[in-house]
Protein backbone atom coordinates (compact mmCIF):
# COMPACT_ATOMS: atom_id res chain seq x y z
CA UNK A 1 0.00 0.00 0.00
CA UNK A 2 2.82 2.42 0.89
CA UNK A 3 4.45 1.83 -2.50
CA UNK A 4 1.14 2.42 -4.27
CA UNK A 5 0.63 5.75 -2.44
CA UNK A 6 4.22 6.75 -3.26
CA UNK A 7 3.75 6.11 -6.99
CA UNK A 8 0.40 7.91 -7.08
CA UNK A 9 2.10 10.87 -5.38
CA UNK A 10 4.82 10.87 -8.03
CA UNK A 11 2.17 11.11 -10.75
CA UNK A 12 0.34 13.93 -8.96
CA UNK A 13 3.43 16.06 -8.43
CA UNK A 14 4.92 15.45 -11.88
CA UNK A 15 3.51 18.65 -13.54
CA UNK A 16 4.82 20.88 -10.74
CA UNK A 17 8.14 19.02 -10.69
CA UNK A 18 8.52 19.34 -14.46
CA UNK A 19 7.92 23.11 -14.33
CA UNK A 20 10.44 23.46 -11.47
CA UNK A 21 12.92 21.36 -13.44
CA UNK A 22 12.61 23.59 -16.52
CA UNK A 23 12.96 26.75 -14.43
CA UNK A 24 16.15 25.41 -12.82
CA UNK A 25 17.48 24.51 -16.24
CA UNK A 26 16.77 27.75 -18.08
CA UNK A 27 17.06 30.32 -15.27
CA UNK A 28 20.00 28.90 -13.29
CA UNK A 29 21.76 26.72 -15.85
CA UNK A 30 21.21 23.49 -13.90
CA UNK A 31 20.31 20.07 -15.33
CA UNK A 32 21.46 21.00 -18.84
CA UNK A 33 23.08 17.65 -19.45
CA UNK A 34 21.27 14.37 -20.15
CA UNK A 35 17.64 15.52 -20.08
CA UNK A 36 16.37 12.33 -21.76
CA UNK A 37 18.62 10.16 -19.61
CA UNK A 38 16.50 11.14 -16.61
CA UNK A 39 13.63 9.35 -18.33
CA UNK A 40 15.66 6.20 -18.94
CA UNK A 41 16.51 7.06 -22.56
CA UNK A 42 20.22 6.34 -22.45
CA UNK A 43 22.49 5.86 -25.42
CA UNK A 44 25.01 3.01 -25.45
CA UNK A 45 27.00 4.41 -28.37
CA UNK A 46 30.49 2.96 -28.39
CA UNK A 47 29.62 0.64 -25.49
CA UNK A 48 29.42 -3.10 -26.03
CA UNK A 49 27.23 -4.38 -23.20
CA UNK A 50 28.60 -7.81 -22.34
CA UNK A 51 29.55 -9.78 -19.26
CA UNK A 52 28.94 -8.62 -15.70
CA UNK A 53 28.16 -5.02 -14.79
CA UNK A 54 27.72 -2.92 -11.65
CA UNK A 55 25.40 0.07 -11.47
CA UNK A 56 26.70 2.70 -9.02
CA UNK A 57 24.42 5.54 -7.96
CA UNK A 58 26.18 8.56 -6.44
CA UNK A 59 24.00 11.62 -5.87
CA UNK A 60 26.56 14.39 -6.28
CA UNK A 61 30.20 15.39 -5.91
CA UNK A 62 30.71 14.16 -2.34
CA UNK A 63 29.34 10.70 -3.07
CA UNK A 64 31.32 10.47 -6.31
CA UNK A 65 34.55 11.32 -4.51
CA UNK A 66 33.78 8.60 -1.96
CA UNK A 67 32.94 6.13 -4.75
CA UNK A 68 36.19 6.92 -6.58
CA UNK A 69 38.40 5.05 -4.14
CA UNK A 70 36.14 1.98 -4.06
CA UNK A 71 35.72 1.80 -7.83
CA UNK A 72 39.41 2.36 -8.56
CA UNK A 73 40.39 -0.51 -6.28
CA UNK A 74 37.56 -2.74 -7.53
CA UNK A 75 38.40 -2.07 -11.19
CA UNK A 76 42.06 -2.97 -10.65
CA UNK A 77 40.87 -6.39 -9.40
CA UNK A 78 38.11 -6.84 -12.00
CA UNK A 79 38.94 -4.90 -15.20
CA UNK A 80 36.47 -7.08 -17.15
CA UNK A 81 33.43 -6.00 -15.10
CA UNK A 82 31.69 -2.97 -16.59
CA UNK A 83 30.90 -0.03 -14.30
CA UNK A 84 27.97 2.32 -14.97
CA UNK A 85 27.48 5.39 -12.78
CA UNK A 86 24.44 7.64 -12.36
CA UNK A 87 24.50 11.03 -10.66
CA UNK A 88 21.99 13.81 -9.99
CA UNK A 89 24.02 16.89 -10.87
CA UNK A 90 25.94 18.35 -13.81
CA UNK A 91 28.92 19.04 -11.54
CA UNK A 92 28.89 15.45 -10.36
CA UNK A 93 28.84 14.29 -13.96
CA UNK A 94 31.85 16.46 -14.85
CA UNK A 95 33.83 15.26 -11.82
CA UNK A 96 33.08 11.62 -12.63
CA UNK A 97 34.03 12.11 -16.26
CA UNK A 98 37.31 13.74 -15.27
CA UNK A 99 38.38 11.44 -12.44
CA UNK A 100 36.75 8.03 -12.93
CA UNK A 101 38.41 6.65 -16.04
CA UNK A 102 37.39 3.13 -14.99
CA UNK A 103 33.73 3.79 -15.82
CA UNK A 104 32.10 2.24 -18.86
CA UNK A 105 29.30 4.82 -18.86
CA UNK A 106 28.13 7.91 -16.94
CA UNK A 107 24.49 9.00 -16.97
CA UNK A 108 22.17 11.43 -15.25
CA UNK A 109 20.10 9.63 -12.62
CA UNK A 110 16.83 8.18 -13.87
CA UNK A 111 13.78 9.64 -12.18
CA UNK A 112 12.25 7.30 -9.59
CA UNK A 113 9.23 6.39 -11.72
CA UNK A 114 8.65 2.63 -12.22
CA UNK A 115 8.67 2.77 -16.03
CA UNK A 116 11.88 4.84 -16.03
CA UNK A 117 13.78 2.60 -13.59
CA UNK A 118 12.58 -0.56 -15.36
CA UNK A 119 13.81 0.74 -18.71
CA UNK A 120 17.20 1.67 -17.25
CA UNK A 121 17.62 -1.78 -15.69
CA UNK A 122 16.70 -3.50 -18.98
CA UNK A 123 19.38 -1.55 -20.85
CA UNK A 124 22.20 -1.75 -18.29
CA UNK A 125 21.44 -5.31 -17.07
CA UNK A 126 23.42 -4.86 -13.84
CA UNK A 127 24.67 -7.79 -11.79
CA UNK A 128 24.67 -5.55 -8.69
CA UNK A 129 23.50 -2.09 -7.62
CA UNK A 130 25.71 0.02 -5.33
CA UNK A 131 24.07 3.07 -3.74
CA UNK A 132 26.47 5.56 -2.18
CA UNK A 133 25.63 6.84 1.31
CA UNK A 134 21.88 7.55 1.70
CA UNK A 135 20.23 7.92 -1.71
CA UNK A 136 17.36 5.55 -0.86
CA UNK A 137 14.96 5.80 -3.81
CA UNK A 138 12.05 3.36 -3.25
CA UNK A 139 11.42 2.32 -6.87
CA UNK A 140 15.13 2.03 -7.66
CA UNK A 141 15.55 -0.38 -4.74
CA UNK A 142 12.25 -2.24 -5.20
CA UNK A 143 12.58 -2.86 -8.94
CA UNK A 144 16.24 -3.85 -8.71
CA UNK A 145 15.34 -6.33 -5.97
CA UNK A 146 12.42 -7.74 -8.00
CA UNK A 147 14.83 -8.22 -10.93
CA UNK A 148 17.07 -10.35 -8.70
CA UNK A 149 19.81 -7.71 -8.48
CA UNK A 150 21.63 -7.59 -5.11
CA UNK A 151 21.79 -4.10 -3.60
CA UNK A 152 24.60 -2.67 -1.49
CA UNK A 153 24.46 0.67 0.33
CA UNK A 154 28.13 1.72 0.50
CA UNK A 155 29.68 4.18 2.95
CA UNK A 156 26.21 4.42 4.46
CA UNK A 157 25.26 7.10 6.92
CA UNK A 158 22.13 8.59 8.47
CA UNK A 159 22.71 12.22 9.47
CA UNK A 160 21.41 13.81 12.68
CA UNK A 161 19.13 16.00 10.59
CA UNK A 162 17.62 13.26 8.40
CA UNK A 163 17.17 10.60 11.12
CA UNK A 164 14.07 12.22 12.75
CA UNK A 165 12.46 12.59 9.32
CA UNK A 166 13.15 8.97 8.43
CA UNK A 167 11.75 7.81 11.80
CA UNK A 168 8.40 9.41 10.99
CA UNK A 169 8.31 7.32 7.80
CA UNK A 170 9.35 3.95 9.22
CA UNK A 171 6.16 2.15 8.05
CA UNK A 172 6.93 3.34 4.51
CA UNK A 173 10.68 2.75 4.50
CA UNK A 174 10.79 -0.62 6.32
CA UNK A 175 9.67 -2.75 3.33
CA UNK A 176 12.06 -0.82 1.06
CA UNK A 177 15.05 -1.20 3.38
CA UNK A 178 14.40 -4.90 3.85
CA UNK A 179 15.02 -5.39 0.14
CA UNK A 180 18.61 -4.14 0.48
CA UNK A 181 21.10 -7.02 0.52
CA UNK A 182 23.86 -5.27 2.42
CA UNK A 183 24.28 -2.01 4.34
CA UNK A 184 27.99 -1.11 4.74
CA UNK A 185 27.69 1.70 7.29
CA UNK A 186 30.31 4.26 8.33
CA UNK A 187 29.88 3.89 12.11
CA UNK A 188 28.15 1.89 14.81
CA UNK A 189 25.75 4.79 15.30
CA UNK A 190 24.82 4.75 11.60
CA UNK A 191 24.31 0.98 11.79
CA UNK A 192 22.03 1.34 14.81
CA UNK A 193 20.02 4.01 13.02
CA UNK A 194 19.46 1.99 9.85
CA UNK A 195 18.42 -1.00 12.00
CA UNK A 196 15.95 1.23 13.83
CA UNK A 197 14.48 2.32 10.49
CA UNK A 198 13.72 -1.28 9.51
CA UNK A 199 16.75 -2.85 7.82
CA UNK A 200 17.34 -6.56 8.38
CA UNK A 201 19.95 -6.76 11.19
CA UNK A 202 21.87 -9.53 9.36
CA UNK A 203 22.24 -7.21 6.35
CA UNK A 204 23.94 -4.43 8.36
CA UNK A 205 27.67 -4.17 9.02
CA UNK A 206 30.07 -1.39 10.07
CA UNK A 207 33.11 -0.85 7.82
CA UNK A 208 34.26 2.73 8.44
CA UNK A 209 34.31 5.83 6.26
CA UNK A 210 36.04 5.51 2.87
CA UNK A 211 36.77 9.24 2.91
CA UNK A 212 39.60 8.50 5.34
CA UNK A 213 41.19 6.41 2.58
CA UNK A 214 40.64 8.85 -0.25
CA UNK A 215 43.82 10.77 0.54
CA UNK A 216 45.80 7.82 -0.86
CA UNK A 217 44.07 8.33 -4.22
CA UNK A 218 43.90 12.12 -4.18
CA UNK A 219 45.95 13.22 -7.15
CA UNK A 220 46.24 16.98 -7.32
CA UNK A 221 46.40 17.03 -11.09
CA UNK A 222 46.20 20.80 -11.12
CA UNK A 223 48.57 23.51 -12.23
CA UNK A 224 47.26 25.82 -9.51
CA UNK A 225 50.45 25.56 -7.45
CA UNK A 226 52.70 26.42 -10.40
CA UNK A 227 50.42 29.27 -11.50
CA UNK A 228 50.60 30.76 -8.00
CA UNK A 229 54.34 30.24 -7.58
CA UNK A 230 55.06 33.85 -6.70
CA UNK A 231 55.62 35.86 -3.49
CA UNK A 232 52.47 36.08 -1.41
CA UNK A 233 50.83 33.01 -2.94
CA UNK A 234 53.41 30.23 -2.92
CA UNK A 235 53.64 27.36 -0.43
CA UNK A 236 55.67 29.50 1.98
CA UNK A 237 53.00 32.22 2.15
CA UNK A 238 50.18 32.93 4.59
CA UNK A 239 47.20 31.73 2.61
CA UNK A 240 43.80 30.91 4.08
CA UNK A 241 41.60 28.57 2.05
CA UNK A 242 37.81 28.60 2.51
CA UNK A 243 36.30 25.64 0.67
CA UNK A 244 32.74 24.64 -0.27
CA UNK A 245 31.24 27.90 1.00
CA UNK A 246 27.56 28.91 0.88
CA UNK A 247 25.78 32.29 0.59
CA UNK A 248 25.52 33.15 4.30
CA UNK A 249 29.12 32.12 4.96
CA UNK A 250 31.11 34.25 2.53
CA UNK A 251 30.35 37.61 4.25
CA UNK A 252 31.46 36.07 7.58
CA UNK A 253 34.69 34.75 6.07
CA UNK A 254 35.44 38.04 4.30
CA UNK A 255 34.75 40.05 7.46
CA UNK A 256 37.13 37.88 9.51
CA UNK A 257 39.78 37.90 6.78
CA UNK A 258 39.60 41.70 6.34
CA UNK A 259 39.96 42.24 10.09
CA UNK A 260 43.05 40.03 10.31
CA UNK A 261 44.53 41.67 7.20
CA UNK A 262 44.59 45.00 9.00
CA UNK A 263 47.24 43.50 11.30
CA UNK A 264 48.87 40.88 9.04
CA UNK A 265 49.07 42.64 5.68
CA UNK A 266 50.62 39.72 3.79
CA UNK A 267 47.79 37.21 4.27
CA UNK A 268 45.82 36.02 1.25
CA UNK A 269 42.53 34.16 0.75
CA UNK A 270 41.44 31.46 -1.70
CA UNK A 271 37.64 31.32 -1.72
CA UNK A 272 35.95 28.26 -3.25
CA UNK A 273 32.14 28.51 -3.38
CA UNK A 274 30.30 25.20 -3.35
CA UNK A 275 28.17 26.09 -6.38
CA UNK A 276 29.83 27.75 -9.36
CA UNK A 277 26.64 29.38 -10.66
CA UNK A 278 27.00 31.79 -7.69
CA UNK A 279 30.36 33.22 -8.77
CA UNK A 280 29.00 36.69 -9.63
CA UNK A 281 27.27 36.90 -6.25
CA UNK A 282 30.54 35.96 -4.54
CA UNK A 283 32.48 38.60 -6.48
CA UNK A 284 29.96 41.26 -5.43
CA UNK A 285 30.52 40.29 -1.79
CA UNK A 286 34.28 40.66 -2.19
CA UNK A 287 33.88 44.12 -3.77
CA UNK A 288 31.84 45.28 -0.79
CA UNK A 289 34.85 44.61 1.47
CA UNK A 290 37.15 46.63 -0.81
CA UNK A 291 39.38 43.62 -1.53
CA UNK A 292 41.24 43.03 -4.80
CA UNK A 293 40.28 39.72 -6.41
CA UNK A 294 40.95 37.49 -9.39
CA UNK A 295 39.16 34.38 -10.64
CA UNK A 296 41.19 31.20 -10.99
CA UNK A 297 40.04 30.82 -14.61
CA UNK A 298 41.80 34.12 -15.46
CA UNK A 299 45.24 32.85 -14.43
CA UNK A 300 47.56 32.06 -17.34
CA UNK A 301 50.95 31.81 -15.64
CA UNK A 302 52.40 34.77 -17.52
CA UNK A 303 54.95 37.21 -16.09
CA UNK A 304 52.21 39.85 -16.14
CA UNK A 305 50.07 37.54 -13.98
CA UNK A 306 52.81 37.20 -11.42
CA UNK A 307 53.22 40.95 -11.15
CA UNK A 308 49.48 41.46 -10.91
CA UNK A 309 49.09 38.77 -8.23
CA UNK A 310 51.19 40.78 -5.78
CA UNK A 311 48.26 43.16 -5.34
CA UNK A 312 45.54 40.49 -5.22
CA UNK A 313 43.91 39.72 -1.85
CA UNK A 314 41.47 36.99 -2.89
CA UNK A 315 41.46 34.33 -5.58
CA UNK A 316 38.04 32.86 -6.32
CA UNK A 317 38.19 29.21 -7.32
CA UNK A 318 35.75 29.09 -10.22
CA UNK A 319 36.96 25.75 -11.59
CA UNK A 320 36.07 22.14 -10.85
CA UNK A 321 38.36 19.58 -9.22
CA UNK A 322 41.04 21.91 -7.77
CA UNK A 323 39.92 22.26 -4.16
CA UNK A 324 42.46 19.72 -2.88
CA UNK A 325 45.27 21.61 -4.65
CA UNK A 326 44.00 24.83 -3.08
CA UNK A 327 43.92 23.30 0.41
CA UNK A 328 47.49 22.13 -0.16
CA UNK A 329 48.55 25.74 -0.82
CA UNK A 330 47.04 27.08 2.37
CA UNK A 331 48.26 27.16 5.93
CA UNK A 332 44.71 27.25 7.39
CA UNK A 333 41.52 25.70 5.97
CA UNK A 334 37.89 26.57 6.64
CA UNK A 335 35.32 24.03 5.43
CA UNK A 336 31.94 25.50 4.54
CA UNK A 337 28.37 24.30 4.72
CA UNK A 338 28.85 24.50 8.48
CA UNK A 339 28.01 28.10 9.46
CA UNK A 340 24.53 27.70 8.03
CA UNK A 341 22.32 24.65 8.38
CA UNK A 342 23.72 22.63 5.48
CA UNK A 343 25.32 19.87 7.56
CA UNK A 344 28.95 20.51 6.66
CA UNK A 345 31.28 19.26 3.96
CA UNK A 346 34.37 17.07 3.94
CA UNK A 347 36.62 18.17 6.82
CA UNK A 348 38.94 15.22 6.13
CA UNK A 349 40.27 16.64 2.86
CA UNK A 350 42.33 19.46 4.42
CA UNK A 351 43.08 17.34 7.52
CA UNK A 352 44.66 14.69 5.30
CA UNK A 353 46.95 17.40 3.89
CA UNK A 354 48.11 18.31 7.41
CA UNK A 355 46.20 21.60 7.55
CA UNK A 356 44.48 22.89 10.72
CA UNK A 357 40.74 22.77 10.02
CA UNK A 358 38.09 25.31 11.02
CA UNK A 359 34.36 24.72 10.63
CA UNK A 360 31.05 26.01 11.93
CA UNK A 361 28.63 24.33 14.37
CA UNK A 362 26.48 22.58 11.72
CA UNK A 363 28.52 19.49 10.85
CA UNK A 364 26.11 16.59 11.34
CA UNK A 365 27.01 15.12 7.93
CA UNK A 366 30.54 14.53 9.23
CA UNK A 367 29.82 14.16 12.94
CA UNK A 368 32.29 11.31 13.61
CA UNK A 369 35.13 12.99 11.72
CA UNK A 370 34.47 16.32 13.47
CA UNK A 371 34.29 14.60 16.85
CA UNK A 372 37.72 13.05 16.32
CA UNK A 373 39.21 16.33 15.05
CA UNK A 374 37.96 18.23 18.10
CA UNK A 375 39.00 15.48 20.53
CA UNK A 376 42.52 15.41 19.07
CA UNK A 377 42.76 19.23 18.88
CA UNK A 378 43.29 19.08 15.12
CA UNK A 379 40.76 21.81 14.38
CA UNK A 380 38.37 24.37 15.84
CA UNK A 381 34.67 25.12 15.70
CA UNK A 382 33.88 28.81 15.01
CA UNK A 383 30.38 30.23 15.26
CA UNK A 384 30.74 33.73 13.84
CA UNK A 385 33.13 36.23 12.27
CA UNK A 386 34.62 37.22 15.63
CA UNK A 387 35.53 33.65 16.56
CA UNK A 388 36.87 33.02 13.06
CA UNK A 389 39.00 36.17 13.22
CA UNK A 390 40.43 35.10 16.59
CA UNK A 391 41.34 31.65 15.25
CA UNK A 392 42.90 33.08 12.09
CA UNK A 393 44.97 35.47 14.19
CA UNK A 394 46.05 32.82 16.70
CA UNK A 395 47.15 30.31 14.06
CA UNK A 396 48.85 32.94 11.90
CA UNK A 397 50.87 34.27 14.82
CA UNK A 398 51.63 30.81 16.23
CA UNK A 399 52.62 28.77 13.15
CA UNK A 400 54.09 25.99 15.30
CA UNK A 401 50.65 25.36 16.84
CA UNK A 402 49.05 25.39 13.38
CA UNK A 403 51.62 22.86 12.21
CA UNK A 404 50.97 20.56 15.19
CA UNK A 405 47.21 20.75 14.63
CA UNK A 406 47.75 19.79 11.00
CA UNK A 407 49.92 16.82 11.93
CA UNK A 408 47.31 15.61 14.41
CA UNK A 409 44.66 15.84 11.68
CA UNK A 410 46.76 13.80 9.29
CA UNK A 411 47.28 11.26 12.08
CA UNK A 412 43.51 10.86 12.45
CA UNK A 413 43.15 10.17 8.72
CA UNK A 414 45.97 7.61 8.67
CA UNK A 415 44.64 5.83 11.75
CA UNK A 416 41.17 5.34 10.25
CA UNK A 417 42.11 4.02 6.82
CA UNK A 418 41.08 0.59 5.55
CA UNK A 419 37.40 1.05 4.72
CA UNK A 420 38.00 0.92 0.95
CA UNK A 421 39.39 -2.62 1.00
CA UNK A 422 36.57 -3.74 3.29
CA UNK A 423 34.02 -2.33 0.83
CA UNK A 424 35.73 -4.02 -2.12
CA UNK A 425 35.72 -7.42 -0.39
CA UNK A 426 32.02 -7.04 0.41
CA UNK A 427 31.24 -6.10 -3.19
CA UNK A 428 33.30 -9.06 -4.42
CA UNK A 429 31.25 -11.44 -2.28
CA UNK A 430 27.99 -9.80 -3.33
CA UNK A 431 28.83 -10.28 -7.00
CA UNK A 432 30.10 -13.83 -6.56
CA UNK A 433 26.89 -14.87 -4.79
CA UNK A 434 24.77 -13.11 -7.41
CA UNK A 435 26.54 -14.67 -10.38
CA UNK A 436 26.63 -18.14 -8.82
CA UNK A 437 22.90 -17.85 -8.17
CA UNK A 438 22.44 -17.13 -11.89
CA UNK A 439 24.74 -19.97 -12.88
CA UNK A 440 27.43 -17.68 -14.27
CA UNK A 441 31.10 -18.66 -13.88
CA UNK A 442 32.87 -16.30 -11.48
CA UNK A 443 36.44 -15.16 -11.17
CA UNK A 444 37.64 -13.95 -7.79
CA UNK A 445 39.88 -10.94 -7.50
CA UNK A 446 43.28 -11.05 -5.86
CA UNK A 447 43.42 -11.54 -2.10
Describe the overall structure.
By secondary structure, the protein is an alpha/beta fold. The protein is 45% helix and 14% strand. It has 18 helices and 14 strands. The chain has helices spanning 2-28, 61-77, 90-99, 114-124, 138-146, 162-168, 170-177, 188-196, 224-227, 250-261, 279-288, 303-309, 323-329, 348-352, 367-375, 385-397, 399-415, 419-437, and strands at 53-57, 82-87, 105-108, 128-132, 151-156, 182-185, 204-206, 239-245, 268-273, 293-295, 314-316, 332-335, 357-359, 379-381. It is globular, with a radius of gyration of 23 Å. The two termini are 45 Å apart.
Could you write a compact summary of the structure shown?
By secondary structure, the chain is of the alpha/beta class. It has 18 helices and 14 strands.
Low-confidence stretches: none
Q: What's the helix count?
A: 18
Radius of gyration in whole Å, from Cα?
A: 23 Å
Helix content, binned percent: 40-55%
Strand order of the largest sheet: 3-2-1-4-5-6-7
- CATH topology value of the largest domain: Rossmann fold
| Number of structural units classed as domains | 2
Percent in strands: 5-15%
**Structural class based on helices, strands and sheet pairing:** alpha/beta
Give average pLDDT, whole number: 90
Provide the CATH top-level class of the largest domain: Alpha Beta
- Let me know the CATH homologous superfamily of the largest domain: 3-Deoxy-D-manno-octulosonic-acid transferase, N-terminal domain
Would you report the number of β strands? Answer: 14
CATH architecture annotation name of the largest domain: 3-Layer(aba) Sandwich
N-end to C-end Cα span: 45 Å
Approximate shape: globular
- What does the largest sheet look like? 7 strands, parallel
Amino acid sequence: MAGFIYNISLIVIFPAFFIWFLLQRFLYGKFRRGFLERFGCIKMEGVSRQGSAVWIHAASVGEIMAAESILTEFHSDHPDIQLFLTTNTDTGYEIAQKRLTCLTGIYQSPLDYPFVISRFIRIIKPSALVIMETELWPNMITLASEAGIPIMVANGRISDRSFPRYKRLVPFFRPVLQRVTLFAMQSREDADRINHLGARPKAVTTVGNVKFDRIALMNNQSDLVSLLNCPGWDLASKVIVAGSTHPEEEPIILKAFSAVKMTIREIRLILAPRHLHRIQEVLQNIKQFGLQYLCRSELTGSVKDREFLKDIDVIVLDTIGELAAAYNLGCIAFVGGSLQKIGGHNVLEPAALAKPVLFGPYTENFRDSVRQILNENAGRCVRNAEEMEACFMELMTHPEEAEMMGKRGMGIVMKNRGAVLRHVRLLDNLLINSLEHRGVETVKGPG
